[in-house]
Every structure is written in structure tokens, then in C-alpha cells.
């Protein structure tokens, strides 16, 4: 099996002005593509060649894990964004967020604080907990909740390549902007 770069679920300019087409050209077209290409190079002719991306993530380490997890994380991330996103969640996901954090505003503040303090390169995730609630976690580098049998609901990429062209080194400004394109429908589907 050869892994392929999945198509974006929207046009490269669809998230403007919050995330520019130039950022997507580099982030998706160069970085994400490089993870997929390197992953294919690493699995070619090995027992991992026939495995799913998720199976590779759960059974590998080192360079293979990093490439597979980054390929998976980025694909997931693109679906966490939508040109018709933003606002607040509703239904059971909103109830779970309010139960855990007290309000949506407090959830956003907590999420942003964790994302800003996520040292170096990584991801900040909203996950479903084993008791049916929600929590916010940071992962470093390529690490991903699915490697730990956790259920991701949404993520924000806080690697610098996700925002440098648009926001330079101002991660807080990027976070403020990205809430305008968060795909709450996708997160709600993952929650259910």
C-alpha cells in the first residue's frame, strides 16, 4: 500500500483571512506532503507496507512513528477547520465542555493557555475521556492521542510552520484567529 496525500476538504484560500492560502500551500503542500513521502520511503519493502496508518502509529517508534503520526495528525487537523466554522459547539459536545470547564469562554481560555505554553513543536487537543467527558492535552512533536488509545475530537497544530507566514512568532494571535474556522460539526461527530 502506498500512502497518498489526502485532498484538503476545502480550497487553499477558503480559510482566509484567518489562515492564508500561502500558509496552506506550504503547510499542506510541502510539510504534509513531505511526511507522506518519507513515510512511504520508510515502509517500502517492509512488513509495515501493508498496514494502515493507525496500525503503524500504534506499533512503531522513532522515524517511522514520527512520519506516520504527522501524516495522520495533519489529515485530522485539516478536518478540524472549515470555511463555515467558528462559533461554539452545540448539543452533547457543548454540554460536556460546559460540564468540564464551566463555560465555552473558560474552555477557550484554558485551551489557548495550554496551546501557548506547549513548549516547542506539538499539538493541543480536545479529547474525549473514558468517562464520556472531555479534556485538553498537549502532545510534543509528532505524538498523537491515538497512540495512547485516546479519542481526539479536535486539534490545533502549534508547530511554527502552521502559523509563521501569517503570524510570524505570535502563536497567541494565530490561536485567536483559528477559532474563527474551527469545525465544530467534525468535533461533534468525533464525540458521538
What overall geometry do the principal axes of the alpha carbons give?
Answer: globular
Major sheet strand order = 2-1-3
The radius of gyration is 16 Å
Mean of all residue-level pLDDT scores: 95
Give the ordered list of helices and strands: HHHHHEEEHHH
Report how far the terminal alpha carbons are from each other: 30 Å
Task: Please work out how many helical segments DSSP would assign.
Answer: 8
Instruction: Enumerate the spans where pLDDT stays under 50 for 5 or more consecutive residues.
Output: none
Main sheet, how many strands, which sense, barrel?
3 strands, antiparallel
Q: What level of helicity do the residues show?
A: 40-55%
Structural class: mainly alpha
Kindly describe this structure:
By secondary structure, the protein is mainly alpha-helical. The chain has eight helices and three strands. The protein has a three-stranded antiparallel beta sheet, with helices on both faces. Helix 1 runs antiparallel to helix 3 and helix 2 packs across helix 3. The longest helix has 23 residues, at 21-43. It is globular and about 50 Å long. The two termini are 30 Å apart.
